Structure formats: structure tokens, C-alpha cells
Amino acid sequence: MRVTLAAVLLLLFNSVNAEFNTTSVNFDSQSITIALTQEPPQLNGMKATDQVSILVLSHIMEGLARYDRRGNIVPGVAERWEIDEKGATFWLRDNAVWSDGLPVTAHDFVFAWQNALDPATASEYAFILYPIKNGEAVNRGELAPSELGAYAEDDRTLRVEFSRPTGYFVNLTAFTTYFPVRRDFFESRGDRYAADAGDLLFNGPFKMTKWVHSASLKMVKNENYWDRENITLNAIDAQYITADTRARLNLFIDGKIVHTALDGETYKDALTQRFRIRRFTTGSVFFLEFNHRAHRVTRNLDLRRAIQHVFDPHEMVNKVLATPGNLPGESLFPVWLNGVDHKFRREYPAPIVQIDISRAKQYLAKAREELGLSKIPPLVLLASDSPTAAKQAEYLQGLLKAKLDLDIKIDIQTFKQRLAKMTAGDFDLVNAGWGPDFDDVMTFGDLFASWNLNNRGRYTNPDYDRLVRTAMNSAVPKIRMDAMGELQQLIVDDAIIVPQYEQGVIYLLHPRLKGVVRRVVGADPDYTYARVVQ
Amino acid sequence: MLAYTLKRLLAGVITVWFIATATFIAMHQVPGDPLMNDKAVSAEIRKNLEQKYGLDKPVVEQYFIFLGNMLEGDFGISFTQQNRRVNDIIRDHFPVSATLGILAVFFAASGGILWGALTAIYRNRTPDIVIMFLVILGISVPSFVFAALGQLLLVNINSLLGQSVIPVAGWGTISHMLMPSLVLGLGTMALLTRLMRSSMLEIVNEDYIKTARAKGLSPMRIFFRHQLRNAILPVITVLGPQIAAITTGGFVVELVFAIPGLGRYFVQAVQQLDYTVIMGTTVFYGAFLVLMVIIVDVLYGFVDPRVRLQ
Amino acid sequence: MTDVTPTAEDFSPATSSISVEQISRPSLSYWQDAWIRLKKNTRAIISLYIVLSLAFFTLLGPIFWNVDPSLQDLNQISQAPSLPKTAVLVGQYQRWSGIVLEDFPAEPADYPDSVDAVTDLRPFELATTQQVRLVWNPVVGAAGYNIYRNQRLPENFNDLGLPLGSTYGGNEVSYEDRLSLESRPYYYAVVPTDGLDEYEVYTVIEVTPSMIITLAEASDRQLIKDANVAQTGTALKLEFHPFGTDYLGRDMLARLMQGARVSLFIGIVAPFIYVIMGIVYGGFAGYFGGTIDSLLMRFADFVVALPFLLFMILFKIAFGIGPGESGIFPMLIALVLLLWPATARLVRGQVLQIREQGYIEAARLLGAKPHYLILRHIIPNTMGVILVTLTFAVPAAIFTEAFLSFIGMGVAPPTPSWGSMCNEGVKTMLSHPHELIFPAVFISITVLAFNLLGDGLTEALDSRMRSRE
What we know:
- The complex is a heterotrimer.
- Chain B is an all-alpha fold.
- Helix content of chain B is 75%, strand content 0%.
- In chain C, β2 and β3 form a beta hairpin.
- In chain C, 46% of the residues lie in helices and 11% in strands.
- Chain C is α+β, with helices and mostly antiparallel strands.
- Chain C has 14 helices and ten strands.
- Chain C has helices at 30-40, 42-59, 61-64, 215-220, 252-288, 290-305, 308-318, 328-339, 341-354, 358-365, 370-406, 418-427, 434-461, 463-466; strands at residues 86-90, 119-123, 132-137, 144-150, 162-168, 174-177, 186-193, 203-207, 212-214, 235-237.
- At the B-C interface, α1, α5, α6, α7 and α10 of B face α6, α7, α9, α11 and α12 of C.
């Protein structure tokens, strides 16, 4: 009894550093096994919104354009295109075929786009098709889907008319909502389209051969894919589905999966195991959002400025989040966005807010005076029920109490309740975040425009709206970026939000697997061009 | 016995109907919108979604539609996985949970009865005290800790042996099931140990035990024929609801060991306010629980003929 | 035989000085007897002492250990229990623009296949727990550098540790690390890159930051009396955390004391109420049997099958618990309303068995009323089982409270409870085990006390065990 107990304890706490005996990569068969964080909820490309579905779809489907291994936009189903302010024309390659052997035609794109915009489909991502002429009107049910400004001139030629100049349209076509769907197949499956492996038709580098719900999902190389010569992997086998980072690390240590993300705790074990740790910035921005609705104290600019001047994003990143990879939040626009010639943030540096307690206290005194209050009433901070969210909320609570003597009531809510409260405006402060939908400044820029439904704090400012419109309606990069630069300044001056951090992740990757691409927009991680080396 | 069982089954149907109704009302009282997601959608899209799920109708009408469909055994389409039927979700994932649960209950029951009997025999002596401390540890530490430690143990065994002998996570073979079901059964095992001990102690001085001893029966025979059989009733009592609870309550274990069970749907459905999955899983769970309770009650009669059910 | 002549005296009534029957012990009711024997039971006495010391810890502890349980100290995050640490007083943190060489190309003219490792990697100034600033000499052909940090000397290129960050430009030859620094040796490594991929050469340096505290923080925390008088560079004793600190640098001991209030209240009161409810409910169902039993037990099934989480959210709304408010009392009610059926079922099962026993029948024939039978004969005989469920209900209630606090019902942050401290501690159980172990130990001690009390009570209450004395 005592001996077994000692042995068990030894096994538990004395990590054994054995040879990397692994089944997660196989050189001979060029196959890998991975773990997904959740079951893909929606593999209907027209409706998919979540990371995991997009990850799977981007491997088994292909749009007009695609990303290469360096992250550049390259021809996909379309072999070439022409684009101007009015619209774009795509010429499809003749060797792009569906997994059943029939060619991918321009009609398949038109059908998919019309269908995604059809209000009856109720796609949450329909807005991403709005650059196409009449897209918004179709989505509102004002026009019939056939009125959409996308036409198949013949099987191989696709003509798109824009509703406004959209220089980044080709980038959009690499996104899942823009993927083609073949009408006859879609209609033959009805409600069950994309419900199982057999209810999907593929045109991407891989095809899904097996999908056991919540358990596993297997993708194998698509022999009909036009660029099959450049695809080395024969199989991507998602054998595990779990969101638990420790379980995933254990699977990685056991040689069962090729990739896993680390959190503030598991990275310490990875260090002990002497694994190579990698870093990646996800491109999402997290910020403290204020409620700008009438009768809310947070509508007061000086109160917002007071909070802005005590919040130190460096402390947040280094002491509270305490994992490498996160960048201190300085702007709504993350560092990876492109500007005119270089990165946007290099051309338009974010205004620096100097942490200054005494100035913050002056702002607070002014706010009290303006509001006619002897003391600011307790502010309600809405937070989600995830462990990190609670920690961040508690940090903020402690900070504002210590520095400004502001009382914060933390309102922890489950996912849907939190959304309902955000939409109804039942909060003063909320820790929120935003991830990019496409790689252009506008994916962040219009977030606080008065018409944006995701502007949950209901911030309204004609100046903000004007700057967004300027950038939207221009095709000249300089004009667009200048407007966004001005917008960046406005966000700080008006303390619309307080940026907290740009999210980063650290992760492990099997050393024998090369060519895996991490990506801010689209499939992440992307195994398309990965290969197993000896 | 047959008439009794049939009567119980009828009562069970009514119970399930009550459960369904109460849950339906509660679900619609909880604030939050099942159709709302991270990305806000326009009013038109919302209207269409409401139509698809029949949320545009008055709640009372929705209730009767639900009841009608339930009688036909149709729970509708999930809100979060919009092309999957709730029936398919239950059909795909319940067998996994049930397998895991049965194995866990097997571990819990055999362990609990064994340890419990042992502590009763060695009352107030070292084995009793050691097991009591283990039991206390077992119920004072969150189950997540045992799941994580159990998995870590497997990892270290595997890396010590240089190859993957026991799978760390996943589902499929019997070797996948051992550790998760053991972890899942720990809490119940602790409870059964203590229950068994206390009910063993209650009967150890009964006259019939003394008689048996006086007759010169071997201690083993006394133990198995008389003590165990008489002490096991409370164990069976808790076993029914525990089977149901374990089978559906393995959320943490399913998460850690990447098991495609129904447990995660239970928790996520409420968090996501996935109306159809909430109703489907609750009704299914309710029916399962009621069935288990009936089985246990019928078993009472077999184990202890003195217990009259009517 | 002698003749006795009776006298008149003999016919006067006799006065009895002693009673006819000598009662050696006072007559005791069943419960009085149990109480006496409970007092003699060592286990029960131990449990009593445990309960007393827990009460002392909860109620009087904060008087002796007067520390704010919600005060954050970001300089001492997740510290294991230790003696008080000292820190050097320094001025305000100053931004550092780093070093960008003017006379060195940011991008090399051509990208060579291999480059040399960087040389002269050194701390720019004294490394402190506020910041570690590194500089190095540029490498010809590099278009940037990656900086790593490890806690052990790297063995090879794949063992450099945490990827802290990158510089983008061969001439950007400095890096500032502020990521959760502690006063312990770190091994920093710098790897040249071509802007995307790394060259497989690295340079390592060992740096041990010294513990510091800024003037502003020190005066905020009242470690120095007057910030104007205090000298930078002087050593200062930091707050003492005998049980260590949590993930936001809050004192564990103070949190355990404060958390005890919620956890002990919920952990003792809730089970007590719902076990009693279960006893009464199950007792009646089991005793009367038949239709009453059927109806009562079907209702219990109904309650068990309700989705717990959903109804807790509903309770929260029904009780109108606003954001940031503690809803301990509503939670108590909710717990009781949803958790009683298990005990009821168990008691009913026992009663079903016991009511068929001969002594019950005998008592009934003697004219005992149902309530007398249930209270006097049946319940005492189910006591063992009941006490077991009671002891199991204690941790169950403590953890349910933690779970409910997590979804916004129960105690509002920053108020701690043992259960929620446990849940937080689980996440860091391997690197900072004290954050899990301390609350878990306190929960265990509470459960232990109840188990001992339960065992003691069982022995005291069980008439059959009397015969063995």
C-alpha cells in the first residue's frame, strides 16, 4: 500500500522526460493528428461564424482567392482577376472541380452569395457580402436575391459590381462566406446540408471523410484539387475534441497531437518539459467599453477620462494576463493592420495616454461636479463567466477602488445573459473584445459608428460617423488611412473605450511538422501547406 | 409485481410531463435570447430565425407544439448546431455517457461496498481511519483535480514506459474508459463507502447475525449471506438516482478526457440557452431518472422481501 | 415463636425513611442518554474542538490578522508561504525607448543563409522586478531579433523557454522585459532573425532581478510614512503573507478567514435544513406508503430531474439579486429547495425497511401514534444513514456555492469563499499548489469534523451499540 502510494506520487509530480515517442506525425503516410477545441457547430460555409468551423471549412473548401504559405493572397478557384472602383471580374480556372468531379463554375459562387444574403438563410455573416451591389438590400429583404450585383457571365467568368469602392474585395473572397456552393447538391440535401461528412461537397485541398460528432473528424487530401502537387499532407485527423488546455497539453506530451495552445498555467509545464514554445498574436483587441446611453454616468467624458488615466495596459499584460504574446492595448487598431505602405500603426502611431493619478483625480472631481454628485454611484462592470474574465474584472475593481475610490459591482453573467444585457444597455462598463473579419482597417474602424449593431455602448458621434464614411467611400488608400488615423485620435480624446490588450497566444507545435501557418483572419492554424519532415 | 410496475410507469410518464412543463416555463422566464450571438444581426434576419424555430408564436402555442412533437418523439433542431436534430444529439452521445456512467457506477458500487464493509469490520481501527481520511479527501477536493491528476498519471506512466500504453484522452476502446470512469465514480464511491459502513454497523449486532454466529456459520458465509444482503439497501437506494446523475453529470470528466458524451450538451445548452437541446436533454434525463428509480424500487422487493411496496 | 404483645404504638402508621425502590441512576429519555454518551465519545469531542477552532478562526481571526482580504499586491502575485520579503525603494517607472542604432542597417543588403550569434548581451542597467532591460551588439545580416526567457539554463536551441517578443530591424538591439518578474535567476536568450524565420544561433545571459517597490506603491500601501522623506535605494520590508498570496497578490490568510464566513454558513446551515426536510418528507412517505408515498416520491423525482443551472439562474432573477450584490440568503433557499430529495429518498428507503420490523409492529399494537413511532422508533434507527448524507452534504453545499458565485449568484467578487478559492486554485494547482491546498484543507477539516461528529452521534444514538459497553 505504502509502496504503491509512493510510486503514484512519484509518477504524479516527477515529470518524466522520455524520448519523444509520438504517433501524432507520420512521415511515411504524411499524416498528422490534431485536437479541436470544440465540435464545429456549423459547416455550412454561408452561415459559419466560429473559429473551429472556419478552420475546418478553409481546409476543405476554396474561394476565388486563397492565402499562400506566406500569408499572401494568391489565385484560388479564380486564376486571375481585374478590379477597379466599380467592380471586379474573376476568370475561373478550368481544372477547379468539386469532389464529385464536376467543375466549379461562376454559378456556384453566385448561388452561394445570393443564398447567404437571403434573409431566409439568416446568416450572421451576411454583412461581409455587403460590398457587393444590392447586397445589403437583399439581406434586408428589400430586393430579391436575384437582384444581387454578382453575375455569372458564363461558367468561367464571374462579374461583381460593388456598392462602394472596395479595394480589399479579393481578400474577402478568401473568407468562408464567399466560398462556392453547388445548387443541385445543396437542394438535394435540404435541411441536412453540412450536417454530416456525406452532406458536403468539397473543392478545397482536403475533403472530409469522417465526422463523428463531438468525437473526431478526419480530412484527407482531395485528389481532385487543382493544386494537389503542392499539398504534401495526406491526412489531418482531428481525433480529440476538448477545450481543456491541460488535457491538450497532456495529449501533446503523450505524442498524440501536433499542436496545442498554452495558457498562463500550462506554459510552466511546457517549460519543464523543455518544449519549444512559440508565440502568435491573434489579431483580436480587448477593451473596456463604456455605456454611452443617456442617464448613464459613464456618458460623462471626464469620468471616462479619469478611468482612462489610471488604467495601465502594461500592468494588465505583464501582471494580470502574465503570458507572453499579449501586447499592451494602445489603440482600437491592432499592430498587424496594413496602412498605406507600411503597417498602419507605424504610419499613424497610437496616441499615448500617460498614466497620471493626480490628473485622473482632477477629472473625477470635475465629473462629480458636472453630474452634480457628491460621490459617483457604484459602477456595474459586466463580465462573462470565464475564469480569465473574472480575474480581469477583479483586477479592474481593485484598481479603480485603490486609485480613484470608485466602487465597482461586478456583474458576472453566462454567455446569453451577458449578450442580452449588453444589447439592452444594462451596464456601465463591460470588458469586450473584437476580432477581425477581414484584413482591412475597416473591420475595426466602423465598430463604434452609430449604425453598427455591435456598438453595444451606443456611442454616437457625427464626427466618428463622418470619418468612417470617408474611409468607406474612398478607394484612395491615403484618404482612407488619414481618416482612420484621425479616428484613432478621436477614440482616445473622447475616451470611447479604454484599450486593454491585443491578444497573443503561446503554443506548442510538433518539431517535425513544418509549414504550419498561423493567421489573423481565416483558418488558424492553417495546415494546408504543412509537411512532416524526417 | 407487473401491475405495480405498470402503475409506476404511468406515474413516471406524468412526472416527465411535469418536468417538461416546469422546464419549459423556466426556460422562457430566464432572460437572454437564444438567437443572439457575438455578432449582432439585423431585425430581418432575426425575424426569419424566429420563424424557423417557431419563436414568433405565442409561448402557450409554442408549448403545445412542443408537447405534440414530444409525443411523436421529435425534439426539433438545435439552436447552436443549426443542422442537427436534438434526437440525433441524444442518440449519438447518450450511449457514450451511459457506457461511461455504467462503468463508473460499477467502480463506485464495488469499491464502495468493499471499502464500506472493510471499515465496518475494522471499526475504529487503522483501516477504518485511513479509509475515512481518503473519503474525506475525496469529497473535499473538486472533481476537476482528480480528473487532471488522473490524466497526468497516465501521461507519466506512458512516458516512463516510452510508449502510449493507456490513452490519455479520447474515446473508443475499453482502455480509453478506465481512468475517466474511475474518476467519475470517485465521489459516489466515497458516499457508498460511508453509507455501507454505517448500515453494516447497524446490523452487526442484530439477533439473526448472533444466531448465525452461534450456529457456527463461517464468518465469510455470515458476511455474504446475512450482513451484506441486509446492509445493501441504502446503497441501492442512492444507486438509482446516482446512475442517472453520473450518466449525465460527467461534464468535467468529458471535457478533460475529450469524451463525446451528453454531459457537455447539458451544461452548454443552458449556457447557450439552446431551447430545443435544453428541452430534449431534460426530458430525456427525466425519463431516464424515473426509469432508474422504478428499477431500484422494484429491486427493493427482491433484495429485501420485507419491504412491501403496496 | 415468642409472644409479642402489640402496643398502641405498633398500630400507628409507619413512616418510611427510604423509598421502596432504589433507583441507581436518574431516569433518562432516549435523547438524554444519547447526549451523555456523546459527551463520553472521543471522536465527538475532537470534532467539537475542531468546530470551536473553526469558529474562532472565522470570528476572532480577523481581529488578530487585520489585513484587507481584497487588497491587491501585483508585486507579490501567487507567492508561496514564506517569511516577509524585502524590497528596495525606487522611483517611478520611466518609459524606455530602447536602442536603435543609427549607423547600422535595419534590413540587411542580402539575406545570408547563416549569421553569427549576437555578442555582448548584457543588462542595460540594474535588473529589477520592475523591468529587465537588455542590450546587445548587432549581427551582420540580421533583420530582427527574438528574445526568450527561461528559468533554467537552456540545453539547446529548442529549449530557450518563453518567447517574450521580437524586434523588427537589425539595428533594434534592445528589449525590455516586464512580464511577471520575480527575484530569481532568469536565462535570457537572443536569436537573430531574417524578419520571419530564426537563424539557429543563440546567446544566453543569466540575470537575477532584485526585488523593488516604487515610492508611490510603498506609500499607497503605507509601508513608508512620508513619500517625501523616504530615500530611494533604501531597503524596505514588504507585507508578510504567512499563507502566501493568490493570483492577484491578495493575502491568503485574510481571504481564508473571510471566506470561512460564507462557506461555513452555507456549508452547515443549508445541509442541516435540507436534511431535516428530507427526513420529515422521506419519513412520512415511507411510513404511510401507498398513494401518499407514490405522490410524495414522484414529486421528489420531479425536483431531482429539473435542470439545476437553469433553475438557479431563474432563482437569481426571481430574488432580484442585482449585479455585485451578495445573494447568500436566496442561495440558501435555492439550495434547500433543489437538494432535499436525495435525503428524502434515502430516509424513505430505510423507513420502508424498518417499519416492517417486529418492534414497530409491537409498538403499534401497544397503541403508539404515527408521529411517536416515526420520531421515537424509526428516525433514530435511520440516524446512521442520515448522518452520512449530512456529512456529504457539507462539501456539496460549499462547492455548489462556489459554482453559483461563478455564474453570478451567491457572493459577489471580491468577497472570497473557500469553494471559489478552490476553483481558482485548481487552475494553478501544479505551479502554485498552496492556492488550492489551503482552502481544500479547510474544507477537509470541516468535513472531517462532521464525519467525526456523525460517527460519535451514530454510536451515541444507536441503542444496539449500548449493549456492547
